[in-house]
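Sanity check

After download, print the first record. It should look like this:
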Amino acid sequence: MAGADSLTGIEEAMARLEAYMQGLVESPVLWLSAPARHLLSAGGKRLRAALVFRAAQLGGRPIAPQTVYAAAAVELVHAASLVHDDLIDQSPHRRGQPTIHEKWHHDAAVLVGDYLFALAARAIALTGEIRVLEAIAEAAVAICEGEISTVDQVEPLEVALESYRLKIGRKTASLFGAAGRIGAICGGAAEETVAAMGAFGYALGMAFQIVDDVLDYVGDEHLLGKPAGGDLRRGLITLPLIYAVAHDDSDGLLRRAVARFGEPFPPEEFAAVLQRVQNSSGPRLAREEALRYYEQALKHLQVVTEPEQRSPLEEIARRVVERTY
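Expected structure tokens:
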């Protein structure tokens, strides 16, 4: 979950959200309902939902049922994208549990992802707000674009950085941005605030994904529920690797490894490459970039003049950049 402090005052809304999402999974076809329940019951940070509810409070209204439906739609789109993302990347674990395609079947993962998108559409309809539909539809398109986009080179540095930022902006930050906008819309906030919450969410999403990519290299494996170096093992170029190549690869070890992505990694070679990235300046420089996006996010909160309204959003942002799993 997003953390105790950042949930104070929205506990009831979060509980209603969980109850609603669990109640949605009612298909008699077990190949759909069982994997969907497996994924939703695994929990997760629910950061996007917390962002929806906090942004909704900026309008000065109680959190209405339509906001719960909107938050559910955001979380369901996120869950659907995870199923398809794990399938494309052939990830064996998610949050310490087997992924859908590993526990059930490749076909089940495709259909469950589609099923969750359909449940999200049902939730959107219940909001009765066309702007919620527009925001989530835009984010869903961006997620698909981000998923299929590739970062296929580590040099030149600026080209690699541009490709990486474009990918994570679409794949991850777009839905965070939608969550901020949607919450402000449902809460009846002014248009200036709606735009600011969208920008806040987008910058926060960029920071979130960068931290995620750093933790894949240097995070605690027990907390993460998966071994270190998953992205490297799958041949995915992320920010820590890009910076490691740029600043700490004088003998070309990392460049040679990247050139062979797609081929099997001998265990001893994989261990050497992983250790090189872990010991390089790559993870540190990537975290510094995440902090820059965090600072950008906080600047967008300047439109929120009441400290008691701004503080919970600042807390969500802080937890994003300080998280260890």
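If your output differs, re-run the checksum step. Summary of this record's structure: DSSP finds 17 helices and two strands in the chain.
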